[in-house]
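Hi team, as promised in this morning's meeting, here are the two structures we talked about. I've kept the exact order from the run log so nobody has to guess. The first one is mostly here for context; it's the second one we should focus on when we meet again. Sequence first, then the predicted structure tokens.
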Amino acid sequence: MAKLGFVFPGQGSQKIGMLSDYSDEPVVRDCLAEASDCVGYDVWDMIQNGTQETITQTQRTQPILLSCSVALWRLWQHRGGATPEYLAGHSLGEWSALVCAGAVAFDDAVTIVEARGRLMQSAVPVGEGAMAAILGLPDEEIVELCHRAQDSDEVTAVNFNAPGQVVIAGSVAGVERAIQLCKAAGAKRAMPVPVSAPFHTQMMQPASAGLAERLERTTFKSPAIPVVHNVHAQVETDGSKIRQLMLEQIYKPVRWVACIERLRLFGVDSLMECGPGRVLNGLAKRIDKDLNLFATDEKHRFDSALTELKNKGTRI
């Protein structure tokens, strides 16, 4: 029997017009209306008629992407889609996974990630932090080069996205030095990423501390579907430990390659990207070319996956 995993995207997958071909699906529209009540603005209107600049502001991006992912999950369930054996999410997407696993209430998660985005943005003044993508070097070499580049400035590897594709982050000076070292070491590409803060570095500690009280007042349950976590690429069933992991996740690296490898060890051979875009499909293809990949970014892909996964006999 085939095993299915669902993965949920993080920041970078947002674009104006996403989910437009689901406009006639009441399940989707109702979910986004529920999110709108939580954040105080019309989520559907913003993603259809707003500007890319507006939806890329991290305090908006995070609740919007979470809401879109959960809306598609609810539609999948409503249409009788196969229930996955495991879930995982990339950075912000881990919150989507926890909601869909029943570990955190949707309305709680929407307000939490809005605060998460605001705190992450304010943790480091604009212009003082940076991120860069490094392509074509081994992970261990990038980690070592970042260490050499640190001096009095922070720079570390923060997203292990795929073999030969690592994102680094830290202070502007630290990242610039690391870029030069990586280029000198033979990196195919070493280029700045257009973001406004150095996510998943120790510089995000204030954001984690600021979110701690809010999470302490939030109920975390044991997930109905196991979630593989970014911090250590393992599953966790204890709600209090999940709460702690979600605080650590803000300032620790996203070990995405390890997460996908863990899903494979658990026997997952089909992977559905539940949310806007197909970024995670692209990464999964580089991590393990034998995975069967599906997406929900457009309705025709959703419908195709619904039919194919039922026909394959994936566990329901």
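And here is the second protein, the one for discussion:
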Amino acid sequence: MKFAMCLELDHGPKWIHARQLGVDHAVVLGDTQGGHELWRYENLLRLKTRFEDAGLNLAAIEGLIPMDHIKLGTPEREAELEAFCQTIRNMGALEIPVLCYSWMAHFTWVRTSTTTRARGGALTSSYDHALTQRAPEANHLRLTEDKLWETYAYFLDRVVPVAEKAGVRLSLHPDDPPLSPVLGVGRIFGRPEAFDRAMAMKPSEANAITFCQANFSLMDGPARVPELIRHYGKQIAFVHFRDVRGTAESFVETFHDEGHTDMFAAMRAYRDIGFNGPIRPDHAPSMEGDPNTRPGYEALGRIHAFGYMQGLLEGVDAMRRAT
């Protein structure tokens, strides 16, 4: 597997941290980098080259371009679909192998706090569904699950053949939190069965899954995480290695070593399925000295996460050699 760090577009301390940690793969979040038009070939080329000059390989891009019209099925979706397909072609030409996307419309992941106190006073994010349910818009269903399945089928028919030809894996991220509706917006990827349905709709290596561990642990309980990793197997193209405590309706993000999932068993499952894609720590708490301006993506909590992940992998490999 390829340990990766989610990094900003411009060279900075986190790029250096990655190399010092022994990490040589990068991931970028396109939807947080407004105005850069990352999907254009020349911009992607320069970005990939900057990473390579720093000793990093660009392994995945997440949330690269606007998709709301595609998800909602409005007349403007054709223009968005063409831009999405061109993005895939550009990524293929540059050998950027994974495009992570979600099917959450109007907004993506939702938290009700980004200043919840974690171990030793670290700051983390949390979610309380009861608080979002108080919002006036929560009482009016703005988007149905049936509509989302309809637009998703249309999307797959258009983009999977393009991705197959380009050699890019489209990696579907679960809903976060895995609930429906949220703030009056239906969501469809909050159950394992929904991912089975999505993979069956367009069987292809290009139609793949981002296995975000915390979200899957909130669907059927943390004990099922290793089982689900083995169930999806080669359909997993990308991993968000993170953990939480609680339920889908009420949870808190944790340090990677103190959540409710058996992280060693999860790492063992990735080895067992021969996972060789990018895996990155996600949503680590902000520690003393982190500004918490990008909750979940500050430096110090993720440095801890990488050390923990490296130790887990070393333990799994040692156990496999001994058996």
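Starting points for discussion:
The mean pLDDT is 95.
Residues 210 and 238 are 5 Å apart (CA to CA).
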